[in-house]
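Researcher: Please predict.
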Amino acid sequence: LLSNAVKFTPAGGRIHVSLRTTAEDAVIAIADDGPGIEPGSVPHMFERFRQGTASTKGAPGGLGLGLWLVREIVRAHGGEVTVESPGEQGGSTFSVRLLRGRVHPSETMR
């Protein structure tokens, strides 16, 4: 997620990484002031082979597997990953939520 923030944030832009913990969970958030994500694309960001929209043209290309892999790894640890973006030119925030404490792999693996 941090690599994507660096890749899609223009020179001089800002990336903010934060950690919030409670007794139940920990949330790592990576926010940037890059080009943002068009609203229609947000629900599909974690699909396999999903590529960026017109707002990310010019950024180095990829296969569209990175966010899908992030989601699969986070799910394997019993967590969830989400994205929020107010739209193009508005930046985006990706958050990973993991439960605190011990989760046995058999509880999360398929």
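Model: Strands lie at 15-21, 25-32, 80-84, 92-99.
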